[in-house]
Amino acid sequence: MKTPKPGKSVRGSKSGKPIMALFDLLGRNWTMGIIWHLNDSSKSFSDLEKLCTDISPTTLNTRLKELQSTFIIEKTVGGYKLTTIGEELFVLFEPLREWSNQWSKKFK
What we know:
By secondary structure, the chain is mainly α. Helix content is 54%, strand content 7%. The protein has helices at residues 18-26, 31-38, 45-51, 57-69, 84-104; strands at 73-76, 79-82. Strand 1 and strand 2 (79-82) form a beta hairpin.
């Protein structure tokens, strides 16, 4: 599977629209978990393996490469951390989290 990038066709859309590339990337197994765990501090590969319970090393390696190639994370001496745009993306999750909490009440 190719890394989704704006301007290219992605899973579920041939339009090349940036939002579709982002949704494809974020919808991949463990992508959101990796971003979540990197929000508070940089983490090594082994730290991420422990935090992302049941992730295979191959999948973790693939996701880290995808997130690096899309400028959401970067590799540092101490491991991996969110870039500035990765931090901006994480901030955008908060309104979605709040919305999803309200939405979930409809199911009770």
